[in-house]
């Protein structure tokens, strides 16, 4: 029996017709009915699984993205697309409020979204009110959203962060995040495994999140505070990786490192804020579970002590002073039999160091293991 209209055609016929349509006609085709829209999605869904909205995004690409919204798994939104500050602009949208409203509705239907990045890395002037909060409100019920990143150059409102409930990885790089908002977010997302906070994003009281982060394995942060503010972090029951960056007070990590040594579960440690004191190093080398270490030292004695970390596999070392650390590094190479990467990011070594290190490593080599050495100049 012949089809009485195009809507009655077999799906193979619809695909055949679709191939002969122009890009604009394909969009019109997709808007006829759900069946035609599904044809469009089947043809283009792979293209929009990972999508970025930025200042160069064209109108037709955004329309097609909206049509394929259920297939999107990873989305990056650069709010520069909605900027109205620049004269003679040749990018972005002409009607930011209307465009943002369409984006909002699209986000609510992105049931497959797993990863969301929202960023504002340049000065933003836009009629859109609280864009971060609006976006967070739109995605608050999406069941598959597990990873969220927020980058902002200026202060922004992220009060709606507390409405999300399924997050496992959170990265927030903004000038300031109120502690109560962070605490509520951690409380409503009990399965957080990774938390990355920019330097000074949280001023104090980071300890308040500890009772709500029972599954946290990775913590990256920066916060100039007293020793007592860092110490409670050792109570995180599943913490495996700890990274600190930014300014800190000398010796402020000694109590935290001492507490972490007792638990001996940390495998990755990075301290890029301030050089380790002798007292801090004494506590650090007690953490025998460490596999990866990145740190700054000011004394050769601190470097020599790192040889006690026999299970190290990767070491990235920087010196704050121009000291020759060649002899201090050799015990590390001799004792750390599983060392795979040794990087001297900042530090002086003599001309014979590399040859001596290779000879020493081969002498103690096990199971044909190899080590890569990098000495930055």
Give the SSE layout:
Elements: H1 11-19, H2 23-30, H3 34-44, E1 50-53, H4 59-67, E2 74-78, H5 96-108, E3 115-120, H6 131-138, E4 147-152, E5 169-173, H7 179-188, E6 194-199, E7 218-222, H8 227-230, E8 241-244, H9 254-263, E9 268-271, H10 278-284, E10 292-297, H11 300-305, E11 314-319, H12 326-335, E12 341-346, H13 353-363, E13 372-375
Parallel strand pairs: 1-2, 2-3, 3-4, 4-5, 5-6, 6-7, 7-8, 8-9, 9-10, 10-11, 11-12, 12-13
Order of helical and strand elements: HHHEHEHEHEEHEEHEHEHEHEHEHE
Shape: elongated
- Low confidence ranges: none
Terminal Cα span: 79 Å
Protein name: F-box domain-containing protein
Domain F-box: 3-51
Pfam families: F-box
Organism: Drosophila rhopaloa
Task: Please describe what this structure looks like.
This protein is α/β, with parallel strands linked by helices and 377 residues long. Among the domains are: 1-44, Monooxygenase (Up-down Bundle); 291-377. The chain has helices at residues 11-19, 23-30, 34-44, 59-67, 96-108, 131-138, 179-188, 227-230, 254-263, 278-284, 300-305, 326-335, 353-363; strands at residues 50-53, 74-78, 115-120, 147-152, 169-173, 194-199, 218-222, 241-244, 268-271, 292-297, 314-319, 341-346, 372-375. A 13-stranded parallel β-sheet has the order 1-2-3-4-5-6-7-8-9-10-11-12-13. Helix 12 (326-335) links the parallel strand 11 (314-319) and strand 12 (341-346).
Offer a concise description of the structure.
This is F-box domain-containing protein. With 377 residues, this protein is α/β, with parallel strands linked by helices.
Descriptive key words:
LRR_dom_sf, 13 helices, F-box domain-containing protein, single chain, 13-stranded parallel beta sheet, 13 strands, 31% helix, F-box-like_dom_sf, Monooxygenase, 18% strand, 377 residues, F-box_dom, alpha/beta
């Amino acid at each position: 029996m012949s089809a009485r209209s195009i809507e009655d055609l077999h799906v193979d016929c619809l695909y055949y017709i679709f191939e002969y349509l122009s890009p604009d006609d394909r969009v019109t085709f997709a808007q006829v009915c759900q069946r035609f829209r599904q044809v469009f999605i089947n043809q283009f869904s792979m293209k929009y699984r990972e999508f970025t909205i930025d200042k160069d995004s064209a109108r037709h690409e955004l329309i097609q993205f909206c049509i394929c919204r259920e297939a999107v798994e990873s989305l990056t939104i650069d709010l520069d697309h909605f900027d109205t500050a620049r004269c003679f602009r040749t990018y972005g949208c002409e009607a930011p409020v209307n465009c943002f409203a369409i984006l909002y509705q699209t986000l609510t239907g992105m049931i497959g979204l797993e990863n969301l990045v929202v960023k504002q890395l340049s000065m933003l002037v836009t009629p859109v009110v609280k864009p971060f909060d609006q976006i967070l409100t739109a995605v608050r019920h999406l069941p598959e959203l597990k990873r969220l990143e927020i980058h902002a150059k200026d202060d922004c409102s992220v009060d709606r962060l507390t409405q999300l409930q399924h997050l496992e990885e959170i990265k927030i790089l903004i000038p300031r995040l109120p502690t109560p908002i962070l605490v509520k977010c951690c409380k409503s997302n009990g399965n957080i495994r990774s938390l990355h906070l920019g330097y000074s994003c949280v001023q104090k009281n980071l300890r308040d999140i500890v009772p709500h982060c029972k599954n946290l394995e990775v913590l990256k942060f920066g916060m100039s505070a007293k020793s007592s503010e860092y110490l409670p972090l050792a109570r995180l029951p599943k913490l495996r990786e700890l990274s600190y960056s930014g300014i800190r007070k000398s010796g402020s990590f000694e109590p935290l490192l001492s507490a972490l040594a007792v638990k001996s579960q940390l495998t990755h440690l990075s301290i890029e804020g301030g050089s380790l004191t002798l007292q801090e190093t004494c506590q650090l080398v007690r953490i025998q579970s460490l596999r990866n270490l990145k740190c700054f030292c000011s004394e050769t004695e601190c470097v020599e002590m790192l040889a006690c970390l026999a299970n190290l596999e990767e070491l990235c070392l920087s010196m704050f002073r121009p000291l020759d650390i060649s002899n201090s590094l050799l015990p590390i190479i001799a004792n750390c039999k599983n060392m795979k990467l040794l990087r001297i990011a900042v530090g002086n070594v003599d001309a014979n160091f590399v040859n001596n290190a290779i000879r020493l490593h081969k002498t103690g080599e096990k199971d044909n293991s190899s080590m890569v050495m990098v000495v930055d100049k």
